[in-house]
Each structure stands twice: as structure tokens, then as C-alpha cells.
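To assess whether ligand presence alters the predicted conformation, the chain was also submitted together with (2R)-2,3-dihydroxypropanoic acid. Input:
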Amino acid sequence: MTKPVVYVTREVFPEALELLRRAGEVRVWEGEGPPPYETLARETEEATGLFCLLTDRVDAGLLACATKLRVAAVMAVGHNNIDVAAATAQGVYVGNTPGVLTETTADLAMALLLARARRIPEAQAFARAGRWRTWSPMELLGTDVHGATLGIVGMGRIGEAVARRARGFGMRVVYHSRTRKAAGEQELGVEWAGSLGAVLEGSDFVSLHVPLTGETRGMIGEGELRRMRRTAALVNTSRGEVVDQAALRRALREGWIAGAALDVTDPEPMTPDDPLLGMANVVVLPHVGSATRATRLRMAMMTAQNIVDVLEGRAPAHCVNAQVVPKARG
Ligand code: DGY
């Protein structure tokens, strides 16, 4: 019996490929970086399962031609690269990896906050450049994290994990979210701010933890940046498109806010000539929020399992469109 084809858009952990091979014929894109869109579309036409990354655009056009496809699983919790409505209409399950990257991403959000507050990249560059001549009372002065207020926008799993860390650092934490989490506020030690504006106006650091949707795209634009404190810093580990990057450049150049620490940008990768890369008060990382070996392995295994579930006749354990009416098995 011929096995169903699973297309994997990047070299991933062998353990995940092994799991997939038990249920399907695995074809892996071996080129550097993501496959070109045309290649992805052509390969997906043959596939029953698609193992993709957040860099792969799985849009309505591609899905319409992928008549054999029964599951598209992204190795990420964010699934904005997939047109979920089109997938649902085509009877294709969309799998993702919630939960397993929460703590790792929260670690990185905290690291970014600390890096910006205490000017760690600047201090390292200073030492490396041989400029460290003596202990200096006025050199590389940062801002205190303890006692400062962190404003969290989006109190989902990652927002909560960041709040716990911030409390451990002696910060006050205020938040705004689509829905208030009143029941958990006391245990978490966080305060409901009432509105996004109140978070922006009342925080020394603002950390973004919302998924990218039609509602959140461009959510932090000129108006919002102008509401932040001039001494405040913006931390983004969610999606670059949540922030209007042109407005952010202006905000930093003109001093509406004091700094930014970004793990995600718009576009990705950030173009090498983007002025943000040259600003001393900006930390930019290449989207490494979940990048520890253990977490990325868990993400890859979960993605593979989501596909195996469908190939073996079950709904994926982690699925964002459970309401889908699955295609009949071919
Ligand atoms: C996700 O899972 O959405 C992350 O951005 C990947 O690190």
C-alpha cells in the first residue's frame, strides 16, 4: 500500500522525521531557507500532510490546489502564516504547538527587558571594543527593573509566564487583554489596567503577547507610542506586524520612548539597512523566542504528532480548527 506523502518544509530534528516516517512517505525541502512559494505549492499538491514553519505562506490559493491535503501543521504556536478559514473550508486541519514554548519564550522576553534596561548589548560592545579602561561612576547607566512597572498586553499563557518572572524581579505588573482574567489576578499578582491606553501610559516597560490577527495588526502605532512614557521601553516577542515599525523608528529617533527590544520584526528578516539595527537604544534578535534545543525538539515532535494523528484517522491533538469537516481518506 502506498503511504501518504508528508511534505516538510525544512530540515528538522531526525526524531520528528522518524515519527512521520512511521505513517507517511516523508519528503523534506533541503534547500537553504524556506522553499519558494511555487515549490511549496507544487509539493503540497501531492501531499496529505504538510509540516510547515512560520516562514511558509499557506494561503487560500495554495490550499485550493492541494486537493489531497488533510492536515497543515505549523511548528509554532502562532499560525498566522496559514489561512485558517480557507483550510477549514477545504476540510484541512490546522495544527500548532501551544504550551510547549511558553516558558522558553517568557525567558527570552525577560532577557530582552533586562538587556534593554541594563544596556547589556552596549556594555558588551564597549568591553569588546577595548573601551573598558576603569570602573566609571557615570558610564553605561541603565534603568532599574526592580520597582518598575511592567505593562503586559495580551494575558495568554506567555503573558502570564512573563508576569510571574516580572513579579520575581520585584516589578509591579499591570495588564490589558481581550478578556479580563479576574480570577487569576491575585495569585499572579497582576492588576487589570482597564484599557490598552492605561497600560501604555502607566508602564516603564510594555511587553506584547498578542497573536497576530486582523484586530492586532498595527495595534501599536503612532498614537499608542505617543501615549507611552518618554522613559519607557517596548518589548516585542509576539509578531512584528503588531507594531507599526515606521512609527516605532520615529518614536525612537524623536524620543517619544526611550528604547525597544525586539525578537520579531516586520519584515523578517529585518533588512540589514533598517535604522533600528543601528540604534544604541534598540535590541534586535532574529526571532529566537523559542530557540532552545529542548523546546524546539518538543515543538517539532508535537507538529509531527499532529500530522500522524490525522494520517491515522484522528483529529490532531493540537488543532486550531477542530470544527473542520475532514476530507474523506483517499
Ligand atoms: C511561535 O511559536 O509562534 C513562535 O514565534 C516561534 O518561536
